[in-house]
Structures are given as C-alpha cells and as structure tokens.
Amino acid sequence: MENKMSGKDLVQKTLVLIKPDSVKRGLIGEIISRFEKVGLKIVALKMVKLDKKTAEEFYYSDENWLATVGSKTLTRYREMGLDPKKEFNTDDPKEIGKIIRQWLIDFITSAPIVAIVLEGVNSIEEVRKLVGSTEPLKAPPGTIRGDYAHMSIAYANWNKIVLRNVVHASENEKDAMREIFVIFKLEEIYNYTRNIEEVIY
C-alpha cells in the first residue's frame, strides 16, 4: 500500500533559543518578529536561566556530534590557512568538539535566554533559512545572524570563547523533538488557532 503524506505531516515544531548575547543586546522582540512575520506560530515561550545539568543535556556528548562540530572547525581553519594545533593543542575532531561543547555550556548558562517553540509548515527548514549560517561571518544580509552578528569561528577560538551567533535553531526533526523537551514540559506547549491560519496553511 502506498504511504501517502498529508499536508499536516509537513507542519512541524522547532526550537529556537535567543542566546545570552542577544538578550543582553535587547534583540528579543526584533528576533521574534522575524519568525512571526513569515507566519510561524509561537506555541511555547519563556525566559529561563539554564543550570549546568540542563545545558549538558541540551548539548549532548554523543561522539558523532562531537566529531561533527570538531570537523566543521577544522575545515574552517584549513580554509583560512590556520593551524588548529596552535589553538587547541590537537587536531582530533572529537577532542576539539569536547572543547567547543564546554564553551557552549559555559556561555548558555552565563545569563538568561529566551526559549521559543515555533510551529509551521516545514518550520525547521524555514527557521534555519531565516537564521542563516552558523558562522555569522558567512551568514548573508537579511538573515538574523547576518544582520545582528559578524564574528568568525577563528576569532572566537583565538579568544577561547563560544561563537557569538545570536540564536540556536534545531537542525532537524529528531534534534527538535529532543531539544524542545529538554527545555519545556509538555504542558507548557499550547495548541491554539490564529486568525491568519486560513491564509498561511
């Protein structure tokens, strides 16, 4: 039997974190408005200061994740003609991933963040398009990171700090579901109808 997908299967939920740098800069309203203007629906929203345990759960230490993060950093270093061993004392992707994960945990717990669950058609892909490249230096104008940040991976690593890139956005559906329930309880996520849904769905 043919497995047919319905339009409702394309309506997804995704997580966005407005990071400490954005909260301190007063960008909360501006960033949220970007998502609302394209028709994405806020179904959960709160300001919270993550503790270390929650942050460690959020930035999980799966070996594949660590290797991916480290490999991206190594690739960017090679593109810029830099030697990662000078900054990290290693060129092992997993070890670099561990260092970056600790920077991420230290930063995300340093001050309040705003956590948002957004719902919409292909919302995961839509949000990542609006947010722009992970590295603000490469994010085009018009994206959130392209408009509100400019830091490079190399600069962040030289200074032993996490990349200041304004927001976090879930990368795929599996990550979105895991990340949402690290931050939110089920009863904090609402199901309601907006009066514009007839023209956006």
Automatic annotation (TrEMBL):
GO terms of molecular function: nucleoside diphosphate kinase activity
EC number: 2.7.4.6
Superkingdom assignment: Archaea
Keyword terms: Kinase, Phosphoprotein, Transferase
Domain Nucleoside diphosphate kinase-like: 11-191
Family: Belongs to the NDK family.
Family matches, as InterPro entries: NDK-like_dom, NDK-like_dom_sf
Pfam name, any one: NDK
Protein name: nucleoside-diphosphate kinase
Cofactor(s) listed: Mg(2+)
